[in-house]
Amino acid sequence: MNLIDVIRGVSDVMDALGVAAVSVGVLWGLYVFIKDLITQTADVAYKAFRIQIVRALILGLEILVAGDVIRTVAISPTLSSVIV
Q: What contacts 9, CB < 8 A, 6 or more positions away?
């Protein structure tokens, strides 16, 4: 196994972590939303749900972009791969 294979593996793991971060964040948001519906108004629960979803999306996208940057810069650092 050479360095390129290790970098591909790391970027694949980061892609999986990004997807997992979004999935877990959305599921956690749904859980908290259902729990908040019992104790608060629907408006307050919905606003908290939206904030949680945005947080999960931002975290997941940051991880996905980091994996993409690692893959682009380390594996194929050509001008065409960086532009696309």
A: none
Instruction: Evaluate whether 33 touches 45 at the Cβ level (below 8 Å).
Output: yes
CB distance 16 to 64 below 8 Å = no
Task: Name the pTM for this structure.
Answer: 0.80
How many Å is the Cα radius of gyration of the chain?
Answer: 18
What are 50's two structure tokens?
């939206």
Mean pLDDT by 10 residues, the chain (84 residues): 86 94 96 94 93 96 92 75 64
Maximum Cα–Cα distance for the chain, whole Å?
56
- The single-letter DSSP state of residue 78 is -
